[in-house]
Design brief:
By secondary structure, this protein is of the alpha+beta class. 50% of the residues lie in helices and 11% in strands. Strands 1, 2, 3 and 4 form a four-stranded antiparallel beta sheet that branches.
Length: 165
Amino acid sequence: CFFFFFFFKQKTAYEMLRSLVGSEMCIRDRIKTTTELSEIIKQSVPAFVRRKEKHPAKKTFQAIRIYVNDEINELKEGLGTALTLLDKGGRLSVISFHSLEDRIVKQKFKDLSKECICPPDFPVCVCDVKAKIKIITKKPITETDGNIIKNKRSRSAKLRVCEKI
């Protein structure tokens, strides 16, 4: 339940968990297939959610995958490693496919592009922090509507680029 909330802010996380724990399959046999889990999740969400185009279990399976593979920490470590390996003037391009990933990339780029981290009320900078990167794409580059029609998976892709200075 925690990772449903944490990764996706799912409003129905508690209902899903209650249905999952209280389901007959869970009590009697154990859930053996992803199809069974998917069906329990589908039945646990309100009808208006089930009528939406996307399957209600999609985000749940995505949250489980992100949690099990530790993808958030891997992304943070990967960004740090990639930036240390870059030479001065080298560019790092990152494509994210989820808002949580994009937020992490955006924040990392923002933090590394700051010139000074002193409080605003300090009259003179005492931190001696220098920007490590220059952000090339102020806003993420996203796919065009025409290409999204051809490739639906590209609709969530966001490209951010920075340059090491």
